[in-house]
Amino acid sequence: MAGSNRQILEKERIRIAQIIAVDDDLTNVRQFLQNNGYDTVSFEQGMRNAKVIVVSGMDRDLFGDERITTDATVIEASGLTAEEVLEEVERVMRFTH
Q1: Could you tell me the maximum CA-CA distance found in the chain, to the nearest angstrom?
Q2: Quick one: CA torsion of 40, 56, 63, 22, rounded to 10 degrees?
Q3: The whole model's pTM is what?
Q4: CA 97 → CA 78, 82, 85, 91, distances in Å?
C-alpha cells in the first residue's frame, strides 16, 4: 500500500511539474502545448504553481503587484512561433526534472 501511495504522489508531482501558465492572448500557443501533452492554465491560475509561464510580451505589468514572486521560468513568446515556444518549454522541463 505504501508503495502504491508513493507512485501516486510521484505521478502527481510530475503532473504539477508540467503545468504551464499561458497568457490569455496566446490561445494558439496554449492549444499547441495542450496538443503536445502539457497541462495549461491561465496566467492567473498558474502564477503560483506553474513550472513555466508563457507571456505575450514583457512590456506590460502581468504580475500586477511587484511583490509577487515566482519560481517559474518565464518565456516571452513575442516573435516566437508556437513550435518555438514548445522548444523553449521542453528545454526548461529537461533541466528541471
Answers
A1: 51
A2: 0
A3: 0.72
A4: 26, 22, 19, 11
- Give Cα separations from 48 to 1, 7, 32, 38 (angstroms): 31, 24, 22, 17
Q: Cα–Cα distance between 16 and 49 in angstroms, integer?
A: 7
Q: What is the pLDDT of residues 21-65, one digit of tens each?
A: 999 999 999 999 999 988 999 988 887 788 899 998 765 455 555
What residues make up the domain containing 49? 2-96
Number of domains in the chain: 1
C-alpha cell at 31: 492549444
Helix%, strand%, coil% for the chain, nearest 5: 45, 15, 40
What length is written for the chain? 97
Query: What are the helix and strand counts (H, E) for the chain?
Result: 4, 4
